[in-house]
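pasting for ref
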Amino acid sequence: MDLLIIGAPGAGKGTISELIAQVFPDIQHLSTGDLLRREIAADTELGRQADHLMSTGNLVPDEMVLSLVRNYLSELPPHTSVLYDGYPRTLSQAGTLDEVLSAVGRSVTAVLNVVVPEEVILSRLTGRRSCPKCGANFHLTAMPPRVEGVCDTCGSELIQRNDDQPELIRRRLEVYRERTQPLIDFYEERALLYDIRNDGRPREMPAELAELLAELAEKRRNDCN
């Protein structure tokens, strides 16, 4: 089973991924954002290039992301279920992913399009804080640290990522819409797209998601019989 999640920055793809993992605990979570941040933290050449692009509100080139995804999939055991968080983001990436999956006898099962109003996204992202030492994440209103500005886990000073500034968020949303609408149309034409509204309370299971996961769980049970 190969599930894709697409959605604007701050739409809550990570939260939706956690909810899916509660239903399918064996599914592997592929987050291109996590893969990129790992490269940045390791100060690799790819990481430095990605850091520059992300800090100026631009998307990382297809070939750079594809290299990370291909390496990740090559390390997984056969027939492993995968949840793709934030990939593909463009029509070009979708075509390349199809080729990679087809080569190993796989195909996209469903595409979850996480839909959230722009004003909600701005509130979510501008309030995010992270720990540069241990990687723990917080939010000023939704999940504040016990001590303001201090990481609960290791006691380091929390920071706001450069790309969580309002002007950069608006730029990222504009770029996202321009590059991703063809991708949405592509999967909708193939009857693989499911809109998931995620503007409710934090970590609350959206109704559309609960219905889809029930269908997928039933299908997987039938396939195993």
